[in-house]
Write a structure and sequence with these properties.
The chain is of the alpha+beta class and 283 residues long. It contains nine helices and six strands; from the N terminus they run ααααββααβαββαβα.
C-alpha cells in the first residue's frame, strides 16, 4: 500500500520523531535526571528503559533489512543489538547515546536507498520504502508512550496532521491485515473519518502546511473501514462510525486513548466499538 506521504516528508518526519525520543530522554538539560525505570502504562510490564531498547532494536532492524536487500528472507541479528544496550543502572545519558547511534545508521540507510529498491516486508518481497513508513509510525507511537510515561498525556508532542493521517492509513491498510491472525476478530464494522483542521481551526479537506500531498483533490478521502469478521458476532451488520482529529484516531487504533478521548464523534454501535477496543485492535 502506497504511503500518503512523499519520501522526503516521510524521512523528515521520522527524523523528527527520533529526535523527540532523544529529547525526552535528555530531560531539561545537563544535570537533569530522567527516570528510565519509570513504568510505561501503555506497555504494561515495561519501563522506559525497556521500551527504548525495544524501539532501538526495531529501528535498527528496519535499517538493516533495507541494507541487506534480501527480499525473500527477513533480516536476523536482533539479539546482539539487544545485548549491546546499556543497563538501566547507567542512566538516560548512556541510553540516549546507544539509541542515537542505531537511529543515525537507520536514517543514513533510508536516505541513501532508492524507494523502489528490493527489500523484505511483512507481506514478503517488496520495496525499501515500506521500512521508513513502518519505522515512522512505530517510533511515533512509542515516542508518545515515553513522553506520557515521563510527563503525562498532556505533555505529549502533537503529531502533524499529515503524518497522523498516514499513521491511521498504515494501521488500516497494512498493520491490521498483518495482525489479523493474532488479534480478536471484529464483531462490528468500524468506519473511521479523519477531520483535519486548517491553520485557523476550521475543518478542511487538505492537510497541515507542508503536507505531501496537499489538498483534498490529491489526498483523496480520509476515510477507512475495518470490516467485521465473518462469524465473529451475532449481528454482522453492526456498524460504528468514529470521526475526529487524525492524531486521536491514530492513538485510538493503537490503544493509547479510549473512545471517550476529546474530539471524537461516535455514532452507531458504541457497545460494539467498546468491546472491540477492550479486546484490542492491535497486538
Amino acid at each position: 500500500m502506497t504511503a500518503r506521504l512523499g519520501q522526503t516528508r516521510m524521512l523528515d518526519a521520522l527524523e523528527a520523531q527520533v529526535g523527540l525520543v532523544r529529547f525526552a530522554l535528555a530531560g531539561d538539560g545537563p544535570g537533569t535526571v530522567v527516570d528510565v525505570t519509570a513504568p510505561v502504562a501503555s506497555c504494561p510490564g515495561w519501563t522506559v528503559h525497556d521500551l527504548v531498547v525495544h524501539l532501538g532494536i526495531v529501528n535498527w532492524w528496519g535499517g538493516a533489512t533495507v541494507r541487506e536487500a534480501t527480499p525473500d528472507s527477513r533480516t536476523r541479528g536482533m539479539s546482539p543489538v539487544k545485548h549491546s544496550a546499556p543497563p538501566a543502572t547507567e542512566g538516560s545519558a548512556a541510553l540516549v547515546d546507544w539509541y542515537s547511534g542505531l537511529t543515525a545508521e537507520m536514517l543514513r540507510t533510508f536516505t541513501d536507498t532508492a524507494p523502489d529498491a528490493p527489500a523484505w516486508t511483512f507481506s514478503g518481497p517488496g520495496r525499501a520504502d515500506f521500512w521508513p513508513r513502518r519505522q515512522l509510525h512505530e517510533t511515533l507511537v512509542h515516542r508518545w508512550d515515553i513522553e506520557n510515561a515521563l510527563h503525562g498525556a498532556a505533555a505529549t508532542t502533537p503529531v502533524p496532521e499529515d503524518v497522523a493521517v498516514d499513521t491511521v492509513d498504515e494501521f488500516c491498510t497494512v498493520m491490521r491485515p498483518h495482525m489479523a491472525a493474532h488479534v480478536p476478530p471484529l464483531a462490528v464494522t468500524i468506519r473511521l473519518r479523519a477531520v483535519p483542521h486548517g491553520p485557523e481551526g476550521a475543518a478542511a479537506g487538505g492537510l497541515a502546511t507542508g503536507a505531501e500531498p496537499l489538498g483534498a483533490g490529491s489526498l483523496g478521502a480520509v476515510e477507512w473501514e475495518l470490516p467485521a469478521t465473518d462469524g465473529a458476532g451475532p449481528d454482522p451488520t453492526g456498524v460504528v462510525e468514529v470521526a475526529g482529529p487524525p492524531e486521536t484516531l491514530a492513538l485510538l487504533l493503537w490503544g493509547r486513548v479510549g473512545a471517550d478521548a476529546a474530539g471524537l464523534e461516535i455514532t452507531g454501535d458504541r457497545d460494539g466499538l467498546d468491546a472491540a477496543l477492550e479486546a484490542g485492535l492491535s497486538t
